[in-house]
Amino acid sequence: MKVLSYVAVLLTVIGALNWGLVGVGMLIDQNLNVVNILVGSWPTVEAVVYLLVGVSGLLVGYAHVANKCTMCKK
């Protein structure tokens, strides 16, 4: 279960950084969406990546709200 927690946190951080780059890209009128740049030619793969990041965010959020985060416990 600890591996799942690490993967979920990693995907959540990657997703957050990607959204930050999307915002910066909008300000400077550039496409900085890394997921779209890497797999944009495969819309289904792009959708799966976004779904995995979203589910990871839910898992990380639930783990912290329910005080069940395996990485936070000693």
How would you describe the overall organization of this protein?
It contains three helices and no strands. Helix content is 74%, strand content 0%. The chain has helices at residues 2-27, 34-39, 43-65. The protein has 74 residues and is mainly alpha-helical.
Helix content: over 70%
The H/E string reads HHH
How can the largest sheet be summarized? none
Computed CA radius of gyration, to the nearest angstrom? 14 Å
Averaged pLDDT = 89
The low-confidence runs, each spanning 5 or more residues with pLDDT under 50, are none
Got a strand count? 0
- DSSP helical segment count: 3
Strand content: under 5%
Structural class comes to mainly alpha
How widely separated are the two ends? 15 Å
Shape: elongated
Q: Which key features would you list for this structure?
A:
single chain, 74 residues, mainly alpha
In short:
With about 70 residues, the chain is mainly alpha-helical.
Question: How would the blueprint of this fold be written?
Answer:
Elements: H1 2-27, H2 34-39, H3 43-65
